[in-house]
Amino acid sequence: MIDLQCHLSSCLEDIRIEMAKKVVAEGVHTMVYAPIVEEVSPALALTEASEMEADFHKHGLSLTVVPTVVYSLTTKITEYYEKERLMTLQQDGKYVYTMLTEDVAPVAVEQLIYELQLKGLIPILVEPEKHPGVMMNPDWLYQLVKKGALVQLSAASVVSRQKISKFCTQLIDAHLVHFIASDRTNKNMQLRAAYDKVGQDQAMMFMENAERLLKDETIIRYAPERVKRKKFMWIL
């Protein structure tokens, strides 16, 4: 099993190794280390991933760590590209991790996604279910997926007992989700629980997509639909 988000780098070594043992016991053999680029540069991400993997192997854990970074969908992403090519999941690959921010208008985000596609890149929106704009207007996410973006939900959101879990189910039912991974800010590994919750067929598709992603292959995706739901107030 592949976990497309890794959160073990910030832990103390003893805690990191214990958590890694639990991850391996659940069947995970590969993890993606994807810090935010404003906090960790691509070069540092490469170094930290290599050091983590070596540490795991030293403790007898067969766990591969794949490095990348998450880029905020702001004009800075264009600046990063002009200075050096964006870091993709595979060297010279086409998939790039991105995240929505609250200070960029939807029309600007759509333009940035379009510009990435012109460069031969496919953006993966990481944890958009947490974005207030998406919560209040899921049709925005529908438009982004329709225009070529891929979506990765947080496993913690999927299994949450709060309203966000229901929202995740609605996004999945509308074919607006292509991957599930551990939560970017939550060190509780809940990927297996999330797969159990979405059901076998859906889980198999997400796991297949994770495999394809790391091979830089075409992702399984179905025609997106608009989310059908009654309006309700979000408590943020």
TrEMBL record:
Keywords: Hydrolase, Protein phosphatase
InterPro entries, sorted: Caps_polysacc_synth_CpsB/CapC
EC number: 3.1.3.48
A Pfam family reported for this protein in Swiss-Prot or TrEMBL: CpsB_CapC
Catalyses which reaction(s): O-phospho-L-tyrosyl-[protein] + H2O = L-tyrosyl-[protein] + phosphate
Enzyme class label: hydrolase
MF terms in GO: protein tyrosine phosphatase activity
Residues in coiled coil: none
Record-stated family: Belongs to the metallo-dependent hydrolases superfamily. CpsB/CapC family.
Classification via PANTHER family: TYROSINE-PROTEIN PHOSPHATASE YWQE
Protein name as catalogued: Tyrosine-protein phosphatase
Organism lineage string: Bacteria, Bacillati, Bacillota, Bacilli, Bacillales
